[in-house]
Amino acid sequence: MSIRVVEPLSRCGEAAVYYEEWVKHGMRAMAEAQEKAQEQLRGMFGSGAVIDEMAIMFQNPYELRSWVDAAVRLPGVVLFNTAHDSVSTQPIPSRYNVHYWFLSSPWPEGYEPGEDLWRVEAMYAHKGSPMHDALRDQFSPGESLTVHASFKCADEEAYGVATNTLQRNGYEAVQRCESTYGRFSYWRQGEQETGVFLKPRVNLRDTEDNDA
After folding, report:
1. Could you tell me which residues come within 8 angstroms of residue 191 by beta carbon, excluding any fewer than 6 positions away?
2. pLDDT-derived band of residue 21, with 50, 70 and 90 as boundaries?
3. What are the φ/ψ torsions at residue 204 (nearest 5 degrees)?
4. How would you write 18-79 as a 3-class SS string?
5. pTM for this structure?
6. In this structure, are residues 197 and 186 in contact, taking their beta carbons and an 8 Å threshold?
7. CB of 59 within 8 A of CB of 136?
8. CATH 3.10.180.10 describes domain 11-203
9. Where are the domains of the chain?
10. Contacting residues for 116 by C-beta, under 8 A, at least 6 apart
11. Cα–Cα distance between 162 and 165 in angstroms, integer?
């Protein structure tokens, strides 16, 4: 019987495998959540409604950067923008800063691309957001959390229609926000304690052609 000697992974190799699995797990979780949120949204707004952004939240900037560095090594994933924003909140008045990294989203193994594509918003929210501070307590260092499924409203009128429609369908506004680029809010249904928030958003700063 011959014995084949397998070289153990180096520390760098082990780290690469760990981060690759971390990214794949996050992408898979976002794909599953996007599918469910899309179904909910179209039940309220019709077949043309699109969840075009899924957000994944991290405990600190280092973990966010490590995840992004690993994500862009996967086939099809492209980092195409970063942003920093200052946000004020209601109904609990507060203010916080947040960093966003925007990536394209390959569909994980077991999923097929649909007609609608969505982007990844990898985010780190500094302390000050009541909602995000509460979410941060739900997961341990080294973990990430899929937090919201977002859809774009063309203007303030469309945003108002969206929030009114959510409310009529039993959704509650957990947090309303105004930032340097526009307005957005986070909604959950009834006594929902798990799952992602629906997030309508409207860009009031740039032109309608901007993809914010």
Report:
1. none
2. confident
3. -105, -5
4. HHHHHHHHHHHHHHHHHHHHHHHHHHHHCCCCCCCEEEEEECCHHHHHHHHHHHCCCCCCCE
5. 0.84
6. yes
7. yes
8. yes
9. 11-203
10. 38, 50, 51, 52
11. 5
